[in-house]
Write a structure and sequence with these properties.
heterodimer; A: alpha/beta; Rossmann fold; FAD/NAD(P)-binding domain; Alpha-Beta Plaits; 15 helices; 25% helix; B: alpha/beta; Glutathione S-transferase Yfyf (Class Pi), Chain A, domain 2; four-stranded parallel beta sheet; 14 helices; 8 strands; 46% helix; globular
């Protein structure tokens, strides 16, 4: 056995082969492997046992370490992802450095993927031999600790961000809540009622919004965005850009007299919160319950800023006059950059709805071409009392609809646009059917592919709506075209195959509602790069594990909450927000974090300063010391991926747990003849 | 100018779309463009053959392309089907070398070859991008002020290849019509199916498509529908009696865009070929009014 001149005379290996019940033992001849391994150099004892991970199994290791002065442990069992920690813990309790333990996976990598016992046993033999050759090279590494700063940054002020912020603030931690819109509330603030209880969205949301605004532990920064994130878990340095709203937050009382007094007597400009269906003035409050209750001035439409005006802009400045002594309006406000230090970050940046106007594929539904066609979000604003029609369902032609079509799955479950199911649309389509019928007594028809109503009380909600006289047609609408019948009815025909009847039907309707799906925010890619997050193939931010770690990310200290991680309804968003807050709190309360010592480091003497490693690091852990002309790796950021190690032309980067000698000895072990 | 293009008439231009030919040739001549008919051209195959056997359809269309290649200049295909089939053939030959191999072997059997260099263009493309609207405006002797036009493109010149205009909301013809002084009404059905061959094979579906287009044109307040495609024109113009029997009488006339140009350029009557319309048009003067400001194209009514 080649040990490159190392002195391994003191090495005393204990080898343990686990049966794992039948999982391993049914395919691998564990007795034979144990017998073989017992004869290998430096192996003091070799045992097999039914369940190594159990308490007796672990105690076996601890006893042997004490009685036989073992200083290396090899455990051939399941995946290290499952039990490496377990066996390292056992060794540590017996006073042995946990990194002198090496696991061999003879379950997922061997027993579970073979149907021939001879081959499986042969492979197990090779793998065990490899580990036994490797383990003498192991070094006594130490786990590092990094302290966790107590402040938290929550990015996004929708229901998820709000809930996470309140949970943390109530736990006594200081939270920065940064929201890019001028007010918190997110999409939920736009809804009228929520399913399945049909309680009013704003009634539920506004107490939470008010609580955020008043909480002594929350610093609320709206009309702000995160510019830059540096640092690592426990120690993030974040730059937040505060955009100018031209109104001083601390001085504005929200009286809105400036809006009254604006030189524009009539509201003229499309209102973003009402999706262009309503109008606003250049100085405005996004919606009545906006939080913080501070107006803002839009430089694109305010005369004071428009080009072509004289240098002092809008001469009259009636808004400033109306504000009077409070002096809250400041046209000279500019962007401010704020630097904050936090230990953990929760990303809750939400979603956007699918835009049928931008889709060639959905152009046949006539959105943007026929005034009778709306998106579901637009209809939420129409039925909302704070919306452009005061909660009355009035169409663009001024009339009230008598027949309404609601088309499900717009931009969802479709290879041409998005493959996923957006989870909430069937339910909100049923909700809208109810609200539309309630306001107008119209006949509502829902056109669906499947009726998906998972969750608590949701099926019961579907029952209720279907009993209210809403018509349900199973079929994907093929076409929407103008009604050819005469009279002044401005209707469109919805043509569909009713797949349950196998008949093509044509419904003349006054209004078509497109139930648009959810998709990632348009700048999701830019935003996630700022936080060093991965995303799924569909663009949603990636959780560490879909079942076991749904709010953690691959970047320690950064958590996800709400729809930015994937489409979900309000109950699930809130639950996730609570989970994210709990994860953050776990770190903060622990005070410090253990870092796996599989990090890479630069052998300074050998580094030639070529800088080829710098751009390769996916975790931006490598920096360059200009003075010394050497690269440096930040241990806290390094995740041990090994990319830089492999790339270094002079071989000056070594990685703990994966040093060359360790790897080559393992390869030798696998390839050796038995 | 003085440019010359190879002219591919196809079966329609001297047949059902004679009015298109009658107006296209003098209008282009007025703008300095000469047309020389491709000698010994053959049927392009249109949508029918492509639907049955794509490789044979490519071979059929390629004979025209090969003949045109010898003349070393772009070819003008006013008929939408000819335009699409020959462009599709060019695409297929480039994307699938195996198809190109089969086709070129077939051409060799008749002592021809095709290397893929023939460009097939549409008159609208030429007018907007080569001639330019400014030049066209200079030739307008009788501005069509007061005339309300419904622009109808049909599907083949914009889908699947959107080379010179948008697939969903093309505007080349709209801008051309406005340059002639007329008002373009917003028409959301501008690329919706006219019924195509279904008017012959499945009239209850095909005719209904045509009827929907006509009805919406009338509802939008159009005086005339202006179209680019011979089959669209045929479907919209020729079946008024059957449409009247099934639904209601529709009397809105349908013209080719080149006929409208001939009127605006004040060319001789035979060049506007209005007498070829099955659904007749009232005298032009009845539609015209006092000059008004140029409207712009809206996208939502």
């Amino acid at each position: 056995m080649n040990n490159n001149g190392n002195d391994f005379s003191e090495v005393r290996i204990g080898l343990y082969i686990c049966h794992c019940g039948h999982n391993i033992a049914s395919m691998v001849d564990v007795k034979a492997v144990t017998a073989y391994a017992g004869k290998l150099p430096h192996v003091i004892l070799a045992r097999d046992y039914k369940y190594m991970c159990s308490d007796p199994g672990q105690e076996l290791i601890q006893k042997d370490i004490a009685e036989h002065q073992l200083n290396r442990i090899v455990v051939a069992a399941c995946s290290p992802l499952l039990h490496e920690k377990t066996f390292r813990g056992a060794a540590e309790r017996a006073g042995l450095n946990p990194f002198f333990v090496q696991m061999v996976n003879i379950r997922e990598h061997d027993a579970w993927v073979h149907t021939d016992g001879t081959e499986a046993t042969q492979k197990a033999t090779s793998l065990v031999r490899a580990a036994i050759q490797r383990v003498p090279h192991h070094k006594p590494l130490q786990v590092k600790h990094a302290p966790i700063k107590p402040d938290v940054l929550v990015v996004g002020g929708g229901i998820s961000g709000i809930h996470a912020a309140l949970t943390l603030a109530n736990a006594g931690k200081h939270v920065y809540l940064v929201e890019r819109q001028a007010t918190i509330g997110g999409h939920m603030a736009m809804f009228d009622k929520t399913f399945p209880t049909l309680d009013c969205a704003m009634c539920v949301l506004s107490p939470k919004m008010a609580a955020v605004n008043q909480h002594p532990n929350i610093t609320l920064w709206t009309w702000s965005e995160v510019e830059k994130v540096d640092g690592y878990v426990g120690n993030f340095k974040v730059t937040v850009k505060r955009k100018p709203r031209f109104v001083i937050e601390d001085l504005c009382t929200g009286c809105q007299e400036c809006i009254e007094a604006c030189i524009y007597k009539e509201a003229k400009f499309p209102d973003e919160f009402n999706l262009g269906l309503g109008k606003r003035k250049p100085v405005f409050l996004p919606f009545p319950q906006a939080t913080p209750p501070v107006v803002m001035i839009d430089p694109e439409t305010c005369l004071n800023f428009k080009r072509g005006q004289v240098s002092d802009g809008c001469r009259k400045k009636t808004c400033v006059e109306a504000c009077g002594e409070r002096k809250a309006i400041d046209f000279k406000m500019h962007e401010e950059l704020k630097e904050i230090e936090v230990g953990t970050i929760i990303v809750a940046t939400g979603f956007k709805t699918f835009d049928p106007a931008k889709s060639l594929h959905y152009s046949f539904y006539g959105y943007g071409a026929y005034p009778q066609v709306y998106t579901s979000l637009e209809v939420e604003r129409l039925v909302n009392a704070s919306g452009p029609t005061g909660g009355e369902l009035i169409l663009r032609n001024g009339k009230t609809p008598k027949t309404v079509a609601i088309i499900h799955c717009i931009g969802s479950r479709d290879v041409n646009t998005h493959r996923w199911c957006s989870r909430v649309c069937c339910l909100y389509s049923l909700k809208l059917a109810h609200l539309i019928h309630e306001r107008t007594e119209a006949q509502v028809i829902n056109f669906y592919i499947d009726m998906r109503t998972p969750g608590k009380m949701m099926e019961e909600f579907y029952d209720r709506i279907s009993e209210e006289g809403v018509m349900m047609v199973r079929g994907k609408v093929a076409d929407v075209y103008p009604d050819t019948s005469n009279g002044d009815k401005e209707r469109v025909i919805v043509q569909v195959e009713d797949t349950l009847m196998s008949r093509i039907l044509k419904f003349p309707v006054d209004m078509v509602v497109l139930s648009v799906g959810l998709e990632p925010q348009p700048d999701a890619n830019d935003v996630r790069r700022r936080f060093n997050l991965s995303c799924s193939t569909e663009g949603w931010f990636l959780e560490k594990h879909p079942k076991l770690a749904p709010v953690n990310t691959f970047t320690d200290g950064i958590f996800l909450a709400g729809c930015c991680q994937g489409p979900k309804d309000i109950p699930d968003s809130v639950a996730q927000a609570g989970a994210a807050a709990a994860e953050a709190l776990a770190l903060i309360v622990a005070g410090s974090i253990e870092m796996e010592p599989n990090t890479a480091s630069i052998l300074e003497a050998e580094c030639s300063g070529c800088k080829s490693c710098l751009p390769l690091c996916p975790y931006t852990a490598i920096t360059y010391d200009e003075a010394k002309k050497k690269a440096i790796i930040n241990e806290a950021l390094c995740k041990g991926c090994g990319t830089c190690v492999g790339s270094c032309p002079s071989g000056s980067i070594v990685q703990n747990l994966f040093e060359d000698a360790e790897i080559f000895s393992e390869i030798d072990g696998v390839l050796a003849e038995t | 100018m003085g440019a010359t293009y190879t002219y591919f008439p196809g079966c329609c231009m001297k047949g059902t779309a004679q009015a298109y030919h009658d107006s296209l040739v003098p209008v282009l001549r007025e703008l300095g463009i000469q047309l020389e008919e491709l000698p010994d051209w053959n049927c392009c195959g249109a949508t029918a053959y492509m639907a049955i056997d794509e490789i044979k359809a490519c071979a059929l269309a390629s004979r025209n392309l090969a003949l045109a290649e010898k003349l070393q200049r772009p070819m003008l295909a006013p008929c939408s089907a000819c335009y699409l089939v020959m462009n599709k053939t060019n695409h297929y030959l480039k994307e699938a070398p195996a198809v190109a191999g089969v086709v070129r072997n077939a051409l060799k059997a008749i002592n021809l070859d095709y290397e893929g260099s023939t460009t097939v263009r549409h008159p609208l493309d030429l007018l907007i991008n080569e001639v330019g609207l400014d030049d066209i405006k200079k030739h307008v002797k009788r501005p069509l002020t007061g005339l309300k036009i419904i622009p109808y493109y049909g599907c083949q010149i914009v889908r699947p290849y959107a080379t010179f205009d948008d697939q969903r909301n093309p505007t080349t013809m709209d801008r051309l019509i406005e340059a002639l002084g007329a008002k373009v009404e917003y028409y959301p059905l501008k690329t919706r199916c006219c019924g195509g061959s279904l008017t012959g094979t499945l009239p209850e579906s095909g005719l209904f498509c045509a009827y929907v287009l006509l009805k919406e044109a009338v509802k939008r307040g159009g005086d005339l529908i202006v179209t680019v495609c011979p089959l669209c024109h045929f479907n919209l113009d020729s079946y008024r009696d059957r449409i009247a029997a099934k639904w209601e009488p529709m009397t809105i006339p349908v013209l080719f865009f080149t006929q409208l140009m001939a009127l605006a350029f004040d060319l001789p009557e035979k060049d506007a070929a209005l007498w070829r319309l099955i659904q007749p048009m009232k005298p032009l003067s009845t539609y015209l009014s006092q000059p008004a400001a140029q409207p712009s194209i809206r996208s939502v009514a």
